[in-house]
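Support request from a user on the community tier.

User writes: "When I paste my structure tokens into the form, the page sometimes reloads and wipes my input. The last time it worked, I copied everything first. Here is what I submitted, just in case something in the input itself triggers the reload:"
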């Protein structure tokens, strides 16, 4: 009997182990994406809060934006050879002014030069045109490589950004700390992270399905969407935004300061 039982147990062990590990891995992956979304929410709050000129200019850009990419932490380090990278989320606005759920991207690049220092930055890319948004729907987009897409980069002090944004499809605003004088994004590669989209939504949605078709939703992203509504209601909302069903969120509606939920959870803020 021993000889007949033990081989069966050994044969079942890998299957049982896989059944236990797969849900745990999926939960861990979704947790990593949720952390990125939470940090993006804090980044929007930190970069746009305040009544100084730079914050006001950034809010003005967001209100004109068709979409926004938020990169909570782009890290750049270099000594002779340098590089930069970080995780980002992209959200777009529909015709009524409501923000989509986020699609996940990564930013990365390599550069060669006599760079000495370490820099970490919070970055928001205001996509002002449909052409700029369409370019980001490709699996990869290299900043500065497409001459038909005008990208304006504004540093830590963004006063005068209205002038810098004239004619631009994408305006990049950075809040920097570190030793570099500024952040150069030319040559940076933005890549869609399909595996992160799958982990966060439970299905393999493309960036287009998430931000343009708005086919995916995860309540964990509602605080980020609400934060963007707080700072970036459209300047000229269409009639649909004020129909009998009511606006997505009243402009100027009071909203408490965002704090991540304990133990990595997120308290959903439903958006009608």
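"...and here is what came back when it finally went through:"
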């Amino acid at each position: 009997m021993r000889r007949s039982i033990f081989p069966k147990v050994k044969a079942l062990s890998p299957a049982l182990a896989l059944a236990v590990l797969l849900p745990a891995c999926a939960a861990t992956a979704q947790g990593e994406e949720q952390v990125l979304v939470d940090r993006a929410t804090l980044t929007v709050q930190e970069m746009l809060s305040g009544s100084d000129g730079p914050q006001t200019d950034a809010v003005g850009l967001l209100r004109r934006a068709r979409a926004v990419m938020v990169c909570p932490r782009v890290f750049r380090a270099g000594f002779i050879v340098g590089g930069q990278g970080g995780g980002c989320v992209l959200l777009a606005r529909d015709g009524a002014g409501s923000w989509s759920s986020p699609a996940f991207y990564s930013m990365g690049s390599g550069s060669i030069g006599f760079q000495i220092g370490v820099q970490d930055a919070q970055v928001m890319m205001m996509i002002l045109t449909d052409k700029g948004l369409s370019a980001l729907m490709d699996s990869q987009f290299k900043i500065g490589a497409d001459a038909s897409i005008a990208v304006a980069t504004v540093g830590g002090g963004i006063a005068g950004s209205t002038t810098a944004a004239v004619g631009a499809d994408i305006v990049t605003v950075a809040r920097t700390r570190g030793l570099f004088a500024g952040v150069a994004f030319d040559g940076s590669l933005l890549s869609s992270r399909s595996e992160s989209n799958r982990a966060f939504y439970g299905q393999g949605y493309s960036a287009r399905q998430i931000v343009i078709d708005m086919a995916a939703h995860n309540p964990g992203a509602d605080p980020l969407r609400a934060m963007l509504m707080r700072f970036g209601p459209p300047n000229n909302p269409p009639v649909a935004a004020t129909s009998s069903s009511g606006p997505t969120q009243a402009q100027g509606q009071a909203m408490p300061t965002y704090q991540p939920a304990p133990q990595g959870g997120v308290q959903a803020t439903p958006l009608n």
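Agent notes: The reload is a front-end session timeout and is unrelated to the input. Residues 32-232 form one domain. Helices lie at 2-48, 53-64, 130-136, 161-164, 194-201, 207-211, 222-231. Escalated to web team.
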